[in-house]
């Protein structure tokens, strides 16, 4: 139980709740990014996810890249609570890409920290520790002392969780350093160092010290009205181990009140497991059986709750992508309309001036006039071809649905030859072929189609087999000849 509680403490969020309004100015969004106001309960990540969604939509509406990046990283951190780490990382990486483009070092630091949390959740402790150490090296980019102390507290807590081969005394040193920095942060709603130190001393069987820190954690949580279910559960577990069963049951009762209120089903299941053990110690098999049934019930509830939240996260991601695609489609429709108007006006003006010039130069012979007419047509056609090619490249970079149809229109012979070789190519395989024909690198294809480079490389290898490209032959030269 102690390991579970120590790890949960890592996921404390450090950002202010967003008020329930529908729109924000950029200045209001900036105020919501204020890292000094720390009010998020670490056991209610669903609240954080909902608030980050509001901030994301407000920032997207205002085209405010700092807010977009921040909220994407925050959504990733919240989704990580549901153990859906891959989805969480996809959000964080999107936010990090934007932070890179706008050269915001603070957001990049935040992204690295949240990424380390996801690696830790996946038990990739080596990778998580490396990122965490990188965060230590970059801490000076944060100018606010409040913010710096908060992150240092988090970094030391993470280092303790990710490090292997440390003694309990080493863990205590790290958590004391974390506590030192957390104590300097004003308005901190949750300080994990009390709980973590209590767990360390409990592992050393120093019951009095463990009790001292657990009770300090309980007082702190009562004052800030959060995480009470965890602190009561810690004290219940401690008293159970020391055979103080009646006191343990009182703490379990209190823990269950808050865990049920906050829908922390996994904790209720663990509490009922201790109830069951106590009744077995008392040889009360009837109540022990009842507690076992409740334990299984809340385990099932915890599983259902987690699956529901993961489903909501995926649905939200799809909805956001659809909104973005619709926005892009509308934008390009408008661009196309304006382009058509421009071409029509250009043709009209060319024709107008050409007729006027013809009237002024009636003495020109027919051949000379025909030659000039052909020259104008060639120039016009060349402009259209260049414009279409630029448009095709732009559509490809934005993964626009019109990309495929425009490519086929501009390269009909290539498409015909490709289909003749293998008419069963899927749409995604055709798109990769089109990108290769246009000289896009694997990295560019992965970036513009929102998939990993490994996935693109796998598709290229699969295309070699499906298009019968000889091993060792440059795939780009092969497509150039096709």
From TrEMBL:
Residues that span the membrane, as ranges: 334-354
Molecular function via GO: DNA binding
InterPro entries per UniProt: Sig_transdc_resp-reg_C-effctor, TPR-like_helical_dom_sf
Keyword Transmembrane helix among UniProt keywords: yes
Swiss-Prot/TrEMBL keywords: Membrane, Transmembrane, Transmembrane helix
Gene Ontology biological-process annotations: regulation of DNA-templated transcription
Keyword Transmembrane helix among record annotations: yes
Record protein name field: Uncharacterized protein
């Amino acid at each position: 139980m102690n390991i579970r509680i120590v790890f949960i403490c890592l996921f404390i969020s450090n950002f202010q709740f967003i008020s329930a309004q529908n729109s924000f100015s950029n200045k209001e969004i900036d105020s919501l990014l204020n890292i000094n106001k720390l009010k998020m309960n670490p056991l209610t990540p669903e609240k954080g996810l909902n608030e980050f969604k509001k901030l994301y939509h407000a920032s997207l509406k205002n085209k405010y890249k700092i807010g977009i990046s921040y909220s994407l990283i925050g959504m990733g951190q919240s989704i990580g609570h549901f153990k859906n780490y891959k989805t969480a990382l996809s959000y964080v990486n999107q936010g990090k890409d934007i932070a890179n483009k706008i050269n915001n070092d603070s957001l990049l630091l935040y992204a690295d920290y949240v990424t380390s949390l996801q690696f830790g959740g996946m038990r990739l402790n080596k990778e998580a520790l490396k990122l965490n150490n990188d965060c230590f090296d970059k801490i000076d980019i944060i100018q606010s002392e409040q913010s710096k102390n908060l992150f240092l507290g988090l970094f030391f807590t993470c280092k303790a969780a990710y490090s292997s081969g440390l003694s309990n005394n080493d863990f205590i040193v790290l958590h004391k350093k974390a506590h030192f920095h957390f104590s300097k942060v004003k308005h901190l709603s949750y300080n994990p160092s009390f709980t973590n130190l209590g767990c360390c001393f409990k592992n050393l069987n120093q019951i009095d010290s463990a009790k001292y820190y657990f009770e300090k954690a309980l007082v702190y949580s009562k004052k800030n009205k959060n995480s009470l279910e965890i602190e009561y559960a810690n004290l219940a577990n401690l008293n159970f181990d020391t055979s103080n069963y009646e006191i343990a049951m009182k703490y379990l009762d209190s823990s269950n009140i808050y865990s049920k209120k906050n829908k922390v089903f996994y904790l209720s299941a663990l509490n009922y497991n201790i109830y069951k053990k106590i009744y077995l110690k008392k040889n009360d098999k009837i109540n022990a059986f009842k507690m076992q049934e409740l334990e299984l019930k809340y385990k099932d509830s915890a599983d259902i709750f987690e699956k529901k939240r993961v489903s909501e996260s995926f649905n939200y991601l799809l909805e956001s992508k659809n909104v973005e695609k619709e926005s892009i489609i509308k934008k390009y429709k408008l661009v196309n309309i304006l382009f058509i108007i421009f071409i029509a006006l250009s043709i009209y003006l060319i024709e107008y001036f050409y007729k006027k010039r013809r009237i002024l130069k009636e003495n020109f012979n027919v051949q000379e006039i025909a030659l000039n007419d052909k020259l104008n047509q060639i120039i016009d056609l060349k402009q259209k071809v260049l414009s279409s090619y630029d448009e095709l490249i732009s559509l490809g970079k934005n993964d626009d649905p019109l990309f495929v149809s425009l490519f086929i229109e501009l390269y009909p012979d290539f498409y015909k030859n490709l289909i003749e070789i293998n008419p069963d190519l899927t749409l995604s395989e055709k798109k990769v072929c089109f990108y290769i024909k246009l000289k896009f690198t694997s990295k560019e294809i992965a970036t513009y189609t929102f998939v990993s480079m490994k996935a693109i490389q796998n598709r290229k290898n699969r295309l070699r087999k499906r298009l019968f490209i000889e091993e060792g032959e440059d795939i780009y030269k092969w497509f150039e000849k096709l």
